[in-house]
Amino acid sequence: MADPRRRGQRGRRSGGRPPARAGVDAPRAAAYEVLRAVRVDDAYTNLALPPALERHGLSGRDAAFATELASGTLRRRGTYDLVLAACIDRPLAKVEAKVLDALRLGAHQLLSMRVPAHAAISTTVDLVRARAGGGPAGFANAVLRRVSERDLADWVRLVAPADPRGFAAVAHAHPRWVVDALAEALGPRADELDDLLAADNAAPRVTLVARPGLAEVAELVAAGGTASPQSPYAVELAGGDPGAVPAVGQGRAGVQDEGSQLVALALASLPLEGADDTWLDLCAGPGGKATLLAAMAAQRGARLLAVERAPHRAGLVRRSTRPASPGMLGVVAADGTVPAWASDRFDRVLVDAPCTGLGALRRRPEARWRRTPEDLTDLVPLQRSLLSAAVTAARSGGVVAYATCSPVLAETVGVVEAVLAERGDAELVDASGLLPGVTDAGGPLPGTLQLWPHRHGTDAMFVALLRRRPGDRIG
User: Fold this and answer.
1) What is the pLDDT of residue 471?
2) Which residues bind S-adenosyl-L-methionine (predicted)?
3) What is the pLDDT of residues 1-53, one digit of tens each?
4) Is residue 289 annotated as involved in ligand binding?
């Protein structure tokens, strides 16, 4: 991609204030702001990017450049930090944080983007000078000149450990514990580890969902998309702003990873005996799966109750599900582990449980550096409690879908086996035939499903279906 240093300045909207300080081009200023928001405010990259692009009036190639600069830098931060540490005569912890952010941006341009070295160095020095002063600018110039002496492959060979997984962790910019956890989740197919890690570093495609009864796949295809063979509702958008697609702007369609669509489809596809008119989404925020389920429910004469613990996220669910309101019972701000509804009530229940998110690293590049193994200490008990509460909420013969956007075994098979062992009123249902468009998706427990970015082009979603045993009731 060409360097948009000057073009970005012309890309400002007429009448707006200059978004970047003198000497700093707009795309790099926007990317720097995203890195700062992630570091200071614990922001998510995919949420911090749009307002940064808007503030700087960026669109088209300039927006794409800023997006790759921010996302790519955050994605490969761990590798760049090792490279920078080899070029600096002090611990990185002693480098001013705002200078280090800029150095990471410079390293990404030098090592992973088609930006000439002189442009990558000079623009980063300009950025440091504008944000931190002349002294740090000279320091940044010296450091980046050292970085530019080798390409990325040479640097990886120099700074990576010799053992295969340690080398893979640096080469693919994943923490070592994440590499180990993903290798364990791949099980007997651990030879796919490099492919999986590489897929985590590929920018995700934009996938739309045609909400049934509200939009047609053909309508989205006509808007420039390509239908998917995996989900009957999925359309991959070739490019452009999804919000410019009329169906998306009207809420009849939305942006949704295909893996999330397949989770909802698996739950809705399992045959049930008896009533099938009352559904529950126990962890509904921000509302994508709830909206798809509500649209499906409406077509069957069923309705969905959406539950979200955080009130502000419950508000997002209300806005998201509004176009599918005929399929909605309502949205409740409540703790799913302390039910505010009667037991034995729901025909279908979804538990899209809070998790480490290590299956969605394509879309949230910062998550790999935020999460630690200790996070599982809090998450796994919560996941077990939510799944048990979902079983209690289901009627006799009703079905529960337990899903995570993490393939980590402690969060998938570990949770399901623990709940099955604790409860005599639940059984695992074979989900393997419910998604005819999906192949090679057998999960770590027979009958479960595990999607992968390198096999299916989706987030690494895990799905297990449990049924309340017919005739069993609580108490």
Assistant:
1) 60
2) 283-289, 308, 335, 352
3) 444 443 333 333 333 433 444 578 999 999 999 999 999 999 999 899 999 99
4) yes
- Which parts of 228-292 are beta strand (E)? 234-237, 253-255, 278-281
Angle between helix 26-41 and 97-112 (nearest 10): 130
**Helix (H) or strand (E) run with residue 191 in it:** none
Residue 286 marked as a ligand binder: yes
H helix and E strand count, the chain: 21, 12
- Higher-confidence residue of 240 and 367: namely 367
Q: Apex CA 187: angle with CA 389 and CA 162, to 5°?
A: 125
Residue with the two structure tokens 């502000």: 312
Q: Is there a binding annotation on residue 308?
A: yes
Query: Per residue in 118-161, pLDDT tens?
Result: 999 999 999 999 999 999 999 999 999 999 999 999 999 999 99
pTM of the model: 0.91
Taken in order 186, 192, 198, 199, the sign of the CA dihedral is negative
Confidence of residue 339 (pLDDT cuts 50, 70, 90): confident
Active-site residue among 105, 235, 351, 405? 405
DSSP for residue 336: T
What's the farthest any 2 CA atoms get from each other in the chain? 76
- For the question of residue 355 being annotated catalytic, the response is no
Average pLDDT over residues 217-234: 96
Q: CB neighbours of 89 closer than 8 A, spacing ≥ 6?
A: none
- The dihedral of CA 123, 363, 38, 286: what is its sign? positive
Q: How far apart are alpha carbons 293 and 289 in whole angstroms?
A: 6
Handedness of CA 176, 178, 181, 183 (dihedral sign): negative
Residues 444, 161: Cα–Cα separation, whole Å = 30
Query: Is there a binding annotation on residue 94?
Result: no
Q: Strands (DSSP E) along 291-418, which ranges?
A: 303-308, 328-333, 346-352, 394-404
Percentage of the chain lying above the pLDDT 90 cut? 90
d(CA 306, CA 284): 6
Rounded-to-integer distance, Cα 352 and Cα 2, Å: 41
List, for residues 282-300, the tens digit of each pLDDT value.
999 999 999 999 999 999 9
Strand, helix or coil at 405? Answer: coil
**Residue corresponding to tokens 């989205």:** 220
Concatenating the DSSP letter of every residue in 113-150 gives SS--HHHHHHHHHHHHHHHH-HHHHHHHHHHHHHHTTS
